[in-house]
Write the structure tokens for this entry.
Amino acid sequence: MSVPVGIEHVIRRTVTADMTPPHLLPTVVLSTPKMIELMETVCLEAAAPHLGDDQTTVGVAVNVTHEAAAREAEEVEFRCRLAEVDRRRLHFEVEATSGGRVIGRGTHDRFVVERSRFGS
């Protein structure tokens, strides 16, 4: 494993009805759990090219705020930057933005693990 501090990655997603909390329908907005899932995804994808064949990462900590609504059909950009590596722990800074507004931000830690330890 050789994941360099400073790597960055970006993904973009358009807000759809399946991303909204059911109790808010018919209004369609990005839910906090979906925002967190996509923040985790961008970090997972950032680390993946730097790992060994039998390695992956698992999320171990999330500390984010959800600061603004992203509405139906808005494109949201999820960005991460690897701020620190401590042995197998990867500490990312994460941010979600749309139309120049911060939707959410914070930190996410992932831990490098061997896939084979999880069985099949």
